[in-house]
Amino acid sequence: SILNLYKPFSLPPLFSHLDDSSQFPPLPKTHSLSVSLSTYTKHQNSLFRRQRKKMDTRIGSLDTCRPASNDICCNGTNGNVSTLQTSSSHCAAPFTPADATLGRHLAKRLVQVGVTDVFSVPGDFNLTLLDHLIDEPELNLVGCCNELNAGYAADGCARSRGVGACVVTFTVGGLSVLNAIAGAYSENLPVICIVGGPNSNDYGTNRVLHHTIGLPDFSQELRCFQTVTCFQAVVNNLDDAHELIDTAISTALKESKPVYISISCNLPAIPHPTFSSEPV
């Protein structure tokens, strides 16, 4: 009994009965700490699905998935910011296979580069994306108690398996995971940090959203990640999503550094013809 370690100290009368180790029978098997990770993960996944039902992130039509502003912030290597001018064409074409969605494309890309476990903390900005990751049979979605733990778990996977991935929510989650991503940057570890971002229709507006610092500016989180990641991709339209996601993942592997991918919460379930099955 661990109480034997404290025998040199006298116990107060109120707690004297604790000196008898027979008062502590072994825990039943149902309370064993040897519960499998897969059982825990299945429980977490069911919680994600229940949480997802509370929020509808669908959009009315495919035409509305383009942000209000055509100036889309896309960031290059180590914080070099560039701007992509998007075309006026529709963001999705007809006759696209139903499973060729942004969320499924990202899940497949993670599998193709060797990711098996994705460490996550759910939030209303990433619930739809988490649904698609859960649906990928070759990915194991591991729920974490906080974002910093998720980041360090992804760090560990990058050390042992060559690449790691974590998924958090907008700003409150991104700023929480930042310390782990900074550590991965200093240790030259390819960690793919995915953040559920604001609705694509909110970009270019003066709306003040929750999970921000109270300003109509969604770039606070992005600016923090620019110095501790080798590539930053802000995906808020479907036309550029394929290119940005693939470039971010391939850059992480090439540079052996973490990358930042922000995906608007209303886009993961929308199909697009560019989401092919070819590897990175």
TrEMBL record:
Signal peptide: none annotated. It is an enzyme of class 4 (lyase). Its EC number is 4.1.1.1. InterPro entries: PDC/IPDC-like (IPR012110), THDP-binding (IPR029061), Thiamin_PyroP_enz_TPP-bd_dom (IPR012001), TPP_PYR_PDC_IPDC-like (IPR047213). Residues 101-206 form the Thiamine pyrophosphate enzyme N-terminal TPP-binding domain. Its cofactor is a metal cation; thiamine diphosphate. It catalyses: a 2-oxocarboxylate + H(+) = an aldehyde + CO2. GO terms for molecular function: metal ion binding; pyruvate decarboxylase activity; thiamine pyrophosphate binding. GO terms for biological process: aromatic amino acid family catabolic process to alcohol via Ehrlich pathway. The keyword Hydrolase does not apply. It holds the Pfam family TPP_enzyme_N. Belongs to the TPP enzyme family. Homotetramer. This is pyruvate decarboxylase.
